Structure formats: C-alpha cells, structure tokens
Amino acid sequence: MIFASDLDQTLIYSQPAERAEELGSRILLAELIDGKARSYMSASAFQRLQALMAELIFVPVTTRTIQQYLRIHLISQMVKPQYAVTSNGGNIVVAGHPDPDWQAAIAARVSETSVHVQDVLTLTDKVLNPAWVISSTYCDDFFFSHIVHRDKMPLQEVRDMSAELHQMGWSTSIQGRKVYVVPHAVNKRDAVAYIKQLLGEDKVVASGDSLLDQVLLDFADYSIAPRHGELFRQQQHAPTGNYTFTEESGIFATDEILSYVQSVTSAHLEIKESS
Q: Which of 35, 37, 84, 242 is the most exposed, fewest CB within 10 Å of its CB?
C-alpha cells in the first residue's frame, strides 16, 4: 500500500515561537531556514509514521519545489522516503534525484493540454499588480506561485481570471497568502498513479488539505483531510465529495491522519494474508 500525503498544513505546520515553546516536546522541528525554525510536526505522529514505514510505502506529495522539499530535514533526511512528489506533481524525486522519464512525460503533456506560459502571463499581468501581490515565482518551470496581501486581493477579478485560465488549461488555487496558477497536466494524482504503476502496488491512502490535493484524494482508495484548509472550507459551503475529515484541526490533526492510515493499512494487510 502507498501512503501519499501532502506536507504543509497536513503533516507539517508553521507555529509562532510562543506556541512552539508552549508545546515543547509534543512537537519536533521539521524545517530550518537560515537557522530559524520554519515548520514542525507532532512528535507522536512522527513516531507513528516511522513505524508505518515498515508496513507501507510513504510518498510525500507537495507543491514545494525540489529544493524546498529537501530542506524539510525531518522528512527528507530522517524518514528518507524512496519516492517523493514535488512541484505539485511536476517532479518525482527518486532517492534524491528527479526522475527524467517523468519530467519528459510531463513536459509533453503540458505542451499538449495547456496554452504557453507567455499567454498565461499576458492574462495574469492584467490582474496581478503590486498593490496586492508581494512576489511572483515561476516554480521549476511548471507553475506560478504568487504571495499576496489576501485582504487587498480583488476577489471577483481573480475569480474571472481563474475562469479564463481554466479554459486555457490552467488551474488556480488560493491557499492562505498564496495564489497558485498551475497547468492541468501538472497534478498530484497523475504523479502518484505513475509511482503506483511503477511499484505494482494495488492500493493508495491519501491525505491533504487544499484544492490542489483534491484530485489525489479522489484518486485514492482511502482518503482523509484535516479539519482546516481550503478543502474543508469548500466542503462546508458546497460539498463536492464524500471526504473523511479529522476531528482535530491544526498540528495535532496529523495524529488522527496517521491513526487512520494505520487502521487502513492493518485492515488491508489482514485481507491480503487471508486471501
């Protein structure tokens, strides 16, 4: 079985310094940037994840670039998964290196199904402006990540832009202070499906909190999402799927996620042993 999970706001979380000090040994430092703590993980969830590694194949699945993923030392250096999906599915990292076959396949799919990046810029440049956009990055030559002042963002203009982008083969996702613009072909589902086929695994359990995770959760045989984030908020207003959500929100939702994965894995192993 494969456990494919988003990282930020699903397994790892940023915490204010005071909150991190208050939680103490209940959380573990997951990531440093310039010597400063960036993200944490529940200590009990980390222990459970390590134990699960003997029973399943853990695949981190993140919108982060390869380099941004590698700096999460708690996952990339201590858990050391053989496979990781980065760049929202644009890259598959195998033993620390991008899979060239997957890179070539994705580049071809993007060319076939989405308009050229310059056409996207022609549209987005009309809407995105310094009054509310702090910075813009073209990530791994696959997608755009815009850091914004959420309270100043012209929501209707962004919605109209998103509708046009969708017709051009690009998706838009708003996550906190970030607005992602991603080609339809670059997604977490297809990357995990590729790994599933490569390894000959028959089942996938997935977790994630954002709309960029939705295609992965819909693809998986079993799925669970934390009780916070973009996906949870959407389901409260316009339910689009039958999702399992944790009772807890925030960093300790991870404990419930790993407990769910443990129960699914145990049941799957029992079925395999009895068949």
A: 35
